[in-house]
Design brief:
- The protein is α/β, with parallel strands linked by helices.
- The protein folds into 3 domains: about 1-165, 3-Layer(aba) Sandwich (Rossmann fold), CATH 3.40.50.300; about 170-340, Rossmann fold; about 395-525, Up-down Bundle (Dehydroquinate synthase-like, alpha domain), CATH 1.20.1090.
- The protein contains 20 helices and 17 strands.
- It has helices at about 15-25, 30-40, 45-65, 85-95, 105-110, 125-140, 150-160, 190-200, 215-225, 245-255, 270-285, 300-305, 340-360, 360-375, 380-400, 415-425, 430-450, 455-465, 480-485, 515-525; strands spanning about 1-5, 25-30, 70-75, 95-100, 145, 165-170, 180-185, 205-210, 230-235, 265-270, 290-295, 310-315, 315-320, 330-335, 490, 495-500, 505-515.
- Strands 2-3-1-4-5 form a 5-stranded parallel sheet, sandwiched between helices. A 4-stranded parallel sheet has the order 9-8-10-11, sandwiched between helices. Strands 6-7-14 form a 3-stranded mixed sheet, covered by helices on one side.
- A hairpin with a 2-residue loop joins strand 12 and strand 13 (about 315-320).
- Helix 2 packs across helix 3 and helix 5 packs across helix 6 (about 125-140).
- The radius of gyration is 25 Å and the shape is globular.
- It starts with a strand and ends with a helix.
Length: about 525
C-alpha cells in the first residue's frame, strides 16, 4: 500500500495523513519533515539559502525514494505534484489523492503564513494565485476529497478510496479535464455519485440501443434517479450501419425535447456505436455538454470509450465526421459483459492485442499466457486485459490528445480494418475481426518494406488465432476493399499515415503514398 496526499498549503495534509496511517496500520511520512531531517535545516532555511529551484530538486529526489517503500501514507509538499514526471510516477506508484478546501478556509488556516516561504507577503492573495496556478496539477489524481469537513469524515472518505477493491481506477491525466476510468465488477453503480460530482444540473439523457437498454440502460437511468436526476431516455438502432447523422439527430432531439441545458449530462450505455454517437451528440449539443460512458462491450471498454474521439460514418468510410470531446468518467463494469455474445467478446480482443503490441513485450507475453482464459471469457484474465489496454491508451492520449502525432499508433490495423468494414456497408465483418486482419496485413507490409523477418507477423497471427480471431487474409482482402484506404482519415493528400508494427513496443507511424500501401497489401496474396 502506498498512499500520497497532495494539496495546497493549509489543507491539512500532515494531520490527515497521520490519522489515515493510524487507521490503516501503516507508517506515516511527511515529505517536508523528511527533507528537513536529511538536510538538517528547516524548509524556510532551505528556501533562503538554496532558492526554490534547488529545494524542488530535493523534493523530487526524496519523493522518488519514498515511492519504492511499501506500507506508507505520505503527506506531500504543496508543490510536489507540480513536477510532471513526479506526478506521473506518483500516479503509477500508488494512490494519489488531492485534498481540497475553499480558499477562505485555507486563508484562515495559514494565518499570517509564518514559516511558509511562499506566503511571506499577503498570504491570501498568494494562496489564491497558487491555487489557480496549481489547479491543473492537483486535478491529475485518483480522487479528490473535501478537506473542509471534520477529520473523521475526511479519513472515512479516504478509506473508501484506498480500500476500493470493487473498481480499479486508471486516470486519464489531462489537467482540469482529468477523468477516471473505473474497471471492475459493479462499477456501473457509481454512475449517480460520479454524475452528481461532475455537473451542477440535475437533468440527464441516457442513450442505449435495443441490445443494451434491458437491463443496463434502464438500470443506469434508475441509479441516476436515485441521486435526484431527472432522466430522459432514448433507444437507438444497434449496429455499425446505424452509426449515422440520422441517429445523432435522434439523440439531439431527445435531449432538446427533455429540456436539457448546458449543466446537463448525456450518458452512453452500450458498445462503441452508442458511445461514439453519444459523445458526438454531447460535443455539439448546445455547443457542448458533459458526457459519461458506461461501455457494455469489451471493444468499447478497451478502446472507444476512452480518449474522447467521437464520430459517425459516411458512405466514403468510417468515422470521417467527428470531434474530440473527453468524458467526465468511464465505468467499465465487467458484469455487463455477461449479456455480450461470445463472438462480440472475441471481436473486442483484437483491440487488446493492438494495445499489447504497442505497450511492449511484457504485455504481449501476458496475453500469450492468458490466451486460453481470454478466449473462454475468464473474468480475471479479462480484467487484466482491460486494465492494460486502458492504461496504455491513457498514456498515449495524455501525450497526444488530438492525434497529431504519437496517438496515431492506436490506429494499428485500422487502415485496412476500416476499409474491410466499409466495403460491406458496415453490415458484414465485425470491427475487431477487421482489425485483426488489418494488423496482420500491416505486419506483412512492414516485413516487405523494411526487410524484417517473418517471426513478428507469425507471432502476431498465432496470438490472434489463439484468441479465436480471423487470420486468413484471403477471405477478405480484395482490390475493392483496398481501394477504401484512400478514404482513411489519416490520409495526407495522396499519402496515408500508415502504422507499421515491428517488435512489441516498436510501432511506428510512417507516411507513404496510398498507392504504395495498396500495392503492398495486394502483393500479400501473391
Amino acid at each position: 500500500m502506498r498512499v500520497f496526499l497532495s494539496g495546497l498549503m493549509g489543507v491539512g495534509k500532515t494531520t490527515v495523513a497521520a490519522a489515515l496511517a493510524r487507521r490503516l496500520g501503516v507508517e506515516h511520512i511527511d515529505l517536508d519533515t523528511h527533507i528537513e531531517r536529511d538536510s538538517n535545516r528547516s524548509i524556510a532555511q532551505l528556501f533562503e539559502e538554496e532558492g526554490e529551484a534547488r529545494f524542488r530538486q530535493r523534493e523530487r529526489d526524496t519523493a522518488r525514494r519514498l515511492m519504492t517503500r511499501e506500507g506508507i501514507v505520505v503527506s506531500l509538499g504543496g508543490g510536489t505534484v507540480t513536477n510532471h514526471e513526479v506526478r506521473r510516477a506518483l500516479l503509477n506508484a500508488g494512490t494519489l489523492i488531492t485534498l481540497s478546501a475553499p480558499l477562505e478556509v485555507l486563508v484562515k488556516r495559514v494565518g499570517s503564513g509564518k514559516g511558509r516561504p511562499l506566503l511571506s507577503t499577503d498570504p491570501g492573495s498568494r494562496l489564491a494565485a497558487l491555487l489557480a496556478e496549481r489547479a491543473p496539477a492537483y486535478a491529475e489524481c485518483h480522487a479528490t476529497v473535501n478537506a473542509a469537513q471534520p477529520l473523521e469524515s475526511i479519513v472515512n472518505d479516504l478509506i473508501r478510496v484506498v480500500n476500493d477493491t470493487e473498481c480499479h481506477r486508471v486516470v486519464v491525466p489531462l489537467g482540469l479535464r482529468t477523468y477516471p476510468v473505473m474497471i471492475g465488477t459493479g462499477c456501473r453503480r457509481r454512475v449517480g455519485e460520479l454524475a452528481s460530482g461532475a455537473v451542477r444540473g440535475r437533468n440527464a439523457l441516457v442513450i442505449s440501443d435495443q441490445n443494451t437498454t434491458k437491463p443496463w440502460g434502464e438500470e443506469v437511468s434508475e441509479l441516476l434517479r436515485e441521486h435526484s436526476f431527472h432522466v430522459a431516455e432514448v433507444v437507438i438502432e444497434p449496429g455499425e450501419h446505424h452509426k449515422s447523422v440520422r441517429t445523432v439527430e435522434q439523440i439531439w432531439d431527445a435531449a432538446l425535447d427533455a429540456g436539457l441545458d448546458r449543466q446537463s449530462m448525456l450518458v452512453g450505455v452500450g458498445g462503441g456505436v452508442v458511445g461514439d454517437l453519444t459523445a458526438f451528440a454531447a460535443s455539439t449539443l448546445l455547443r457542448g455538454v458533459a458526457v459519461a460512458q458506461v461501455p457494455t462491450s469489451l471493444l468499447a471498454m478497451v478502446d472507444s470509450s476512452v480518449g474522447g474521439k467521437t464520430g459517425f460514418n459516411r458512405v466514403h468510410g468510417k468515422n470521417l465526421v467527428g470531434t474530440f470531446h473527453q468524458p467526465h468518467f468511464v465505468l467499465c463494469d465487467q458484469e455487463t459483459l455477461s449479456t455480450l455474445a461470445v463472438a462480440e467478446r472475441t471481436s473486442g480482443l483484437a483491440e487488446v492485442v493492438k494495445s499489447a503490441w504497442i505497450d511492449g513485450e511484457d504485455s504481449v507475453r501476458e496475453l500469450e499466457r492468458d490466451a486460453a482464459a481470454l478466449a473462454a471469457g475468464d473474468s480475471e484474465a479479462l480484467g487484466r486485459a482491460i486494465r492494460m489496454s486502458v492504461s496504455l491508451k491513457a498514456s498515449v492520449v495524455e501525450a497526444d490528445e488530438l492525434e497529431s502525432g504519437r496517438r496515431m499508433v492506436l490506429n494499428l490495423g485500422h487502415t485496412l480494418g476500416h476499409a474491410l468494414e466499409a466495403v460491406d456497408g458496415y453490415q458484414g465483418i465485425r470491427h475487431g475481426e477487421a482489425v485483426s486482419l488489418g494488423m496482420i496485413a500491416a505486419a506483412r507490409v512492414a516485413e516487405a518494406m523494411h526487410g524484417l523477418g517473418e517471426g513478428q507477423s507469425e507471432r502476431l497471427m498465432n496470438l490472434l488465432a489463439a484468441l479465436g480471431l480471423p487470420v486468413d487474409l484471403r477471405d477478405h482482402l480484395t482490390e475493392r476493399a483496398v481501394s477504401f484506404i484512400g478514404s482513411d482519415k489519416k490520409r495526407r493528400g495522396d499519402d496515408v499515415m500508415f502504422i507499421m508494427p515491428h517488435a512489441p513496443g516498436d510501432v511506428r507511424v510512417e507516411r507513404h503514398p496510398t498507392h504504395q500501401i495498396a500495392k503492398s497489401m495486394l502483393a500479400i496474396l501473391g
